[in-house]
Structure formats: structure tokens, C-alpha cells
Design a protein that fits this description.
The protein is 20% helix and 23% strand. With 61 residues, it is of the alpha+beta class. The termini are far apart. Keywords: Lyase.
């Protein structure tokens, strides 16, 4: 959604196209937060960064 802006009660507008979100850990809470940021916050998926320490092939979880 191009040009989406969110208006808060304290008279500040945030341009979500320039907003970045960083999550630590790729568990359910981080993935759920990313979904809500995309769906409800209209944050582009390219601006959401999820960091995980474990390798892709590590199955010890």
C-alpha cells in the first residue's frame, strides 16, 4: 500500500514505508509480530528483519 501513513493521538505521523522492524529469534512471537506489522500496520515485508542464531540445518530445537 503506497503512501500509507498512520496518525496517532499525539499529532505525529509515521511514514511506514521508511519504518524498519527488527526481531530477535525466529520463533512464534517474532513471526506473529511480523504478520501483524504487515497486515495491520501496513509495514512492507522488506522492512521487517528477523535474526536467528541457529543455522538453517540445525534441528536441535
Amino acid at each position: 500500500m503506497e503512501g500509507v501513513k498512520i496518525k496517532f493521538n499525539f499529532d505525529q505521523t509515521i511514514d511506514v514505508e521508511k519504518m524498519n522492524a527488527y526481531m530477535v529469534g525466529a520463533r512464534l512471537a517474532s513471526l506473529g509480530a511480523a504478520i501483524f506489522l504487515i497486515r495491520d500496520g501496513h509495514v512492507p515485508g522488506k522492512n521487517i528483519h528477523i535474526y536467528e542464531e541457529l543455522g538453517v540445518t540445525d534441528r536441535s530445537m
